[in-house]
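Hello forum,

I keep getting stuck at the same step: I have a sequence, I want structure tokens, and every attempt I make locally crashes halfway through. Rather than fight my setup again tonight, could one of you with a working pipeline run this one for me? It's a single chain of 267 residues.
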Amino acid sequence: MLDRFKRNINYLRVSVTDRCNLRCTYCMPEDGIKMMSHNDVLKLEEIAEVIKVGAEKIGITKVRLTGGEPLVRKGIVNLVEMVSNIHQIEEITLTTNAILLADFADDLKKSGLNRINISLDTMNADKFKDITRGGDINKVFEGIKAAKKAGLIPIKINAVKSKSPDLEDIKNLEEYCAKEGLELRFINEMDLTEGSFSQVEGGESGNCATCNRLRLQANGNIKPCLFNNQAYNVREYGIEQAYMMALNLKPERGEISSDHKFYNIGG
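Reply #2:
Ran it on my machine without issues. Output:
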């Protein structure tokens, strides 16, 4: 369905949880976050129903599951299967830090997941541990290997590039991805509260003129834009009405967001 700026909105990014097993410095504050109340978080069946209504009423054909870290959400494989049974959905993808991916890759593929994006900002184990506040980079490599074996391809690597990037990091990531047949994309570090964003290097995200997405948060808020405070809750307004409000009020371009953070909206 077209929004008021004639963009075809057919892509839904779904944050299934605000919880994560890492604490990346550019995503979460060091002293932690206040998690969503368990009662506020949509059940898996509710998420699937929101996607189904979006597919039938809005024309959603592509779904990306995000977090937080989606693989820490209990029942994530079951959710993939539910979504894969919605016949209008043509593609299901997932963005993960890959720490748990080796345990899930086969089941995700069998349940209908098409492909995967993996966050990896450096090839240096010590630097990775510092950025993620304790993460084991070897788990990521194991996850990438498992995803390739399961056929979750093409695998895209998302690397956050700081304002003063480490050129050695960039070179090492480029060499690793070329060797392993992975598609590397650089995401410039963004700031929601300042409205600082740009187009993904090696991808299409970040181009407001062609933005085709809405976002569903784990608490049922449908957001028309990452860099905007607007949100319409499916429990408050009903699923179809929340969609239509988000669609009709989707801004022409991003501005700022003071109400949301990357850890609870999925980037």
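The first helix runs from residue 44 to 58. If your local run keeps crashing, start a new thread with the error log.
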